[in-house]
Amino acid sequence: MSTIFSQIVEGEIPARIVYEDETTVAFLDANPLAPGHTLVIPRDEYERLNDVPDDVAAALYDTVHRLVPAVEESVDADATTVAFNNGKAAGQEVPHVHCHIVPRFEGDGGGPIHAIAGDRPDLGDDELDDIAADIESRS
Ligand code: 5GP
């Protein structure tokens, strides 16, 4: 079963495509959080960022980088929130990597990315040091 986004890539279901190249496609979100809310995806189906090969990741970032100013200018936004829901536990519903570019406006009533947090952990210096060292060792 291909994802709904693969069906958009294949032209099987309609979408308002705003940019495409060999590796990536960008289109308007069907249920926008703001005017201009755009999704950027790799043409090929990868469920999570963790699954995306390096060359595709680079192309994906290039497209995000290209689209952020285009989206902001087109809807006269003051800013954008740019984010991935990377995995079900993070709220990802469509299992095909996609970057949300959400235009933001002064006084739009939305929050910063910090608003995603539930209970914040109370971590001591030793725990922070251990976590940092562990991430570094895997990077
Ligand atoms: P997620 O929660 O997986 O990060 O976000 C999925 C996004 O895809 C949602 O913002 C949703 O509105 C959007 N979406 C779901 N189905 C479709 C569709 O068929 N077409 C378009 N353009 N967007 C969709």
Question: What does it look like?
Answer:
GO terms for molecular function: catalytic activity. It comes from Natrinema altunense (strain JCM 12890 / CGMCC 1.3731 / AJ2). This is Histidine triad (HIT) protein. The protein has 139 residues and is of the alpha+beta class. It has one domain: HIT-like (HIT family, subunit A). It contains three helices and five strands. The protein has a five-stranded antiparallel beta sheet with strand order 1-2-3-5-4, with helices on one face. A hairpin with a 3-residue loop joins strand 1 and strand 2. The chain is globular. The structure holds guanosine-5'-monophosphate (5GP). The site of guanosine-5'-monophosphate has 12 residues, from strand 2.
How big a fraction of the residues is strand?
15-25%
Name of the CATH class? Alpha Beta
Quick one: CATH superfamily?
Answer: HIT-like
The CATH topology is given as: HIT family, subunit A
Rg of Cα set? 17 Å
Helix content: 25-40%
Ligands, ions, cofactors: guanosine-5'-monophosphate
The gross shape turns out to be globular
The strands making up the biggest β-sheet line up spatially as: 1-2-3-5-4
**Number of helical stretches of at least 4 residues:** 3
The structural class is: alpha+beta
Terminal residue distance: 33 Å
Write down the domain tally: 1
Q: Would you report the number of β strands?
A: 5
Mean pLDDT: 97
Under the CATH scheme, which architecture would be assigned?
A: 2-Layer Sandwich
Order of helices and strands: HEEEHEEH
Uncertain spans, ≥5 residues at pLDDT below 50? Answer: none
Protein name: Histidine triad (HIT) protein
Domain HIT: 4-111
InterPro entries: Histidine_triad_HIT, HIT-like, HIT-like_sf
Active site: 98
